[in-house]
TrEMBL record, chains B, C:
Protein name: Stage II sporulation protein AB (Anti-sigma F factor)
Pfam families linked to this entry: HATPase_c_2
Sorted UniProt keywords: ATP-binding, Kinase, Nucleotide-binding, Serine/threonine-protein kinase, Sporulation, Transferase
Organism: Keratinibaculum paraultunense
UniProt record, GO biological process: negative regulation of sporulation resulting in formation of a cellular spore; sporulation resulting in formation of a cellular spore
Amino acid sequence: AGEIKRFLRDDGIIKVSRSLKQTANKIKYAQEDLAKELGREPTIQEIAEELNIDKEEIAMALESTYQPDYLYDVIHH
Amino acid sequence: MVEKNYMKVEFLSKSTNESFARVVVAAFASQLDPTIEELSDIKTAVSEAVTNAIIHGYEYNNDGIVIVEATIEGNRIEIIVEDKGKGIPDIKKAMEPFYTSKPDLERSGMGFTVMETFMDELIVESQLGKGTRVKMTKVFNSVVYKE
Amino acid sequence: MVEKNYMKVEFLSKSTNESFARVVVAAFASQLDPTIEELSDIKTAVSEAVTNAIIHGYEYNNDGIVIVEATIEGNRIEIIVEDKGKGIPDIKKAMEPFYTSKPDLERSGMGFTVMETFMDELIVESQLGKGTRVKMTKVFNSVVYKE
Ligand SMILES: Nc1ncnc2c1ncn2[C@@H]1O[C@H](COP(=O)(O)OP(=O)(O)O)[C@@H](O)[C@H]1O
Ligand SMILES: Nc1ncnc2c1ncn2[C@@H]1O[C@H](COP(=O)(O)OP(=O)(O)O)[C@@H](O)[C@H]1O
Ligand SMILES: [Mg+2]
Ligand SMILES: [Mg+2]
C-alpha cells in the first residue's frame, strides 16, 4: 500500500519544482535543435513557439537551473 | 514561526503584460513549492483579474497602472489586483455568472466566477471613477508548514 | 514606432527573493525576445545588485524593501535596483575590482565588476544612511528592430 501511495504521490501530484526542471530540460534540447537548424542562437520567442508555451514561462523555467556565470563561479570557488 | 513574504508589482495596462503578471505571481508563489494544479489555479485567477483591469478598468488605454500585491503567510497566499480605472457601478451584478458589460467583445462574463472557483476567497471593492481592488486568497493544501 | 513598457517590483530583503527578482526581470525582458544568453547576462547583473541591497544595504535585515524597476524602449532595457539601506561611503572605491567591505563573509568584491561586464552601462548613486540606486542598461542585439 505504501508503494502505491508513493506512486500516486509521484505521478498524480506533481510539484511545481519538478515540472519546472522538466521544462528547463525541454528548453535546453529545443535551444540546441533550433541553433543547428537556424545556424545561430534562437531567441526566446522561437523556443517558446517550438514548445508551445509563453516566453515568460521560459524565463521562469530557466531559473530552476540557474547557475551564476562562469566568471562568477571561478571567483567564488 | 510562520514564514512571511511580500511583494508588489506595478506595470502598464498593456495586454502584453498579462502573461508577465501571471509569471510574477507564479514565481513568487512557487517559493512554497505547491503542486502544478494549485499554481495553475492561481495563475488562472490572476489572469482574469488583470485582464479585467486592462480591458474594463482602463478600457484598453495603455498608460494605466495595474498593481498586483502578494503576501505569503505559512501555506496561505493573498493576492490583490488593483486598478485606478473607471470602477464598477454594481459589484453584485458584475459578479453574477455570465454577466458582462461588453457582450460585443465576446466576453464570457465568467471572470469573477472563475476567480471564485479557483481561489478560496474573493473580495471585490470598487468606486466609480476611482478604481477596483480584487482580493483573493488561497491555501496550498499540499504545502506543509510548521507553526 | 518604439514599443515602450515599464514595470516596478518591490519585495522584502530576504535572500529567497533573489531568485524571485531574477525571474521577474527575465520575464519582463523576454518581451524584447532576447537569446537565452542575453537573458542570462541580465539575470547575473540583477542578481549581483539585489544581493548587494540585501547583504550590504540592509545587512541581512529581512524587513527592508528592495525596489527593482525596468523600462523597455525599442531594443534597450534599463534596470534600476534600489534600497533604502545604509548607503556607500566611497562609491569609487566600492566599484574597484576585488574591493569588498566584508572579506570575512568570503565576498569576492566582484559584484560591480560583474554588472559592468554583463551590461552596457552602469551608474551607481548612493547616500549614507539613505540608500543606494544602481542603474544598468543593455541593448539587445538579437532584437530585430521593427518599424
Ligand atoms: N477592473 C474592473 N474595472 C471595471 N469594471 C470591471 C472590472 N472588472 C470587472 N468589471 C465589470 O464586471 C463585469 C464582469 O466581469 P467578468 O466576470 O470578468 O466578465 P467579463 O470580463 O467577461 O465581462 C465586466 O463585464 C465589467 O463590467
Ligand atoms: N546596496 C549597497 N549598499 C551598501 N553598500 C554597498 C551596496 N552595494 C555595494 N556596496 C558596497 O560596495 C562593496 C563592493 O560591492 P561588490 O562589488 O558587489 O562586492 P561584494 O558584494 O562582494 O563585497 C561592498 O563590499 C559594499 O561595501
Ligand atoms: Mg473578465
Ligand atoms: Mg556584491
